Amino acid sequence: MPGALEGLRVLDLSRQLAGPSCAMMLGDLGADVIKVERPEMGDETRAWGPPFVNGESAYFLCTNRNKRSLTLNLKDTRGIEIARSLAEKSDVLIENYRIGRLAQLGLGYEELKRTNPELVYCSISSFGHTGPDRDLPGYDFMIQARGGFMSITGEEDGPPTKVGVAIADIAAGLYANSAVLAALYARQQTGMGQHIDTALLDAQVALLANVGSSALCTGQPPQRYGNAHPMVVPYQTFEASDGHLALAIGNDRQFASFCKATQAPDWPNDERFATNPKRVENRAALIEEMSPFFKNRTVAEWLALCAENDVPAGPVNTVDRVFEDPQVQARGMLVEMEHPTVGTARLAGSPLNLSKTPIEIRRPPPLLGEHTSEILTELEYSEAEIDKLRREGAV
């Protein structure tokens, strides 16, 4: 069955995480994604490790499946010309170069739309193409700091803490993906492509969600709560007799059900804890009473009791155990595929589930330049011409 985006070509001029993850999602949905990389070096993430598996970076593997790799030297006019030829034949271009750099090479949106007005050109940068800091460099870590995430992450009396994955990059890739799909839909109505300007900082600010709204409504900076929730109680981790579990009680009914099922003290009838606003107000007192209560049973026993009584709770899994979770495996979130050097590559699956046009993981993450000859042949370069380009360092 063809993918939802089969027939679309995506030219991926991005590196690292945000752009490549956006392009990979389009590839999962059926698009033909051509990843342009520097000769010999490639995407920086090919060298980000350890861990490496038979020389392949685990970081690179996570975000580059369903792509073909083409090496191009964009300091060589012939490499630029090949990139222009591909852009003329592409539906989407994704890039994360420093602002203005591709325009200097004749590969900016204004230049390319003259020969391909239908092109959807997606730029991903740290701070966007407008504003006083548009030219500043940036990475996810410092964007998490500047975007407020670190101020609300970590223990209440501890230092500001980053999220354990590059959340600003990932969010920017997701927002960029949504914008690309919207622009493709708009193109169906107008026949014209457009420029998409996605910034990591914008994505990080948007992710502040209800916490950001609280600051806007009150004028006060939110505090850190560690594993607790600022607006819902009890909604945090607790220590059982053999480990930790996450209890996520979201309303008064669930709180009463939990207390009844587990033979907890009569907290629902205590005026301090009867409603969620009261529990938030008296958080410290309730948690002080609840914490010793959890040490009477194992994590498994608590989870079984909660599941039987429709109370949300889960184990605090290490990442290796996540991929052993039967539910994770049943949802197809662990994928195994053959890779030319890794052997059997184990990858996280796609959360995109479409009933009529399901995603398909067709290609493993490519070797550097693996498809250079194939793609240049499609552009009608002869074998002799391709050999000459290789010898002279253009590809």
Strand coverage percent:
15-25%
Q: What would the average pLDDT be, to the nearest integer?
A: 95
Count, helices: 17
- Rg over CA atoms: 25 Å
Query: What are the secondary-structure elements, in order, as H or E?
Result: EHEEEHEHEHHEHHEHHEEHHHHEHHEEHH
Strand order of the largest sheet: 5-2-1-6-7-8
CATH topology of the largest domain: Rossmann fold
Instruction: Assign the structural class, choosing from mainly alpha, mainly beta, alpha/beta, alpha+beta, or little secondary structure.
Output: alpha/beta
Please report the first level of CATH classification, the CATH class of the largest domain.
Answer: Alpha Beta
The domain tally reads 2
| Shape call | elongated
How many strands, what sense, and barrel or not for the largest sheet?
Answer: 6 strands, parallel
Give the helix level as a range of percent: 25-40%
The termini sit apart by 35 Å
Can you name the CATH architecture of the largest domain? 3-Layer(aba) Sandwich
* Unreliable spans: none
| CATH superfamily placement of the largest domain | Crotonobetainyl-coa:carnitine coa-transferase, domain 1
Q: Give me the count of strands.
A: 13
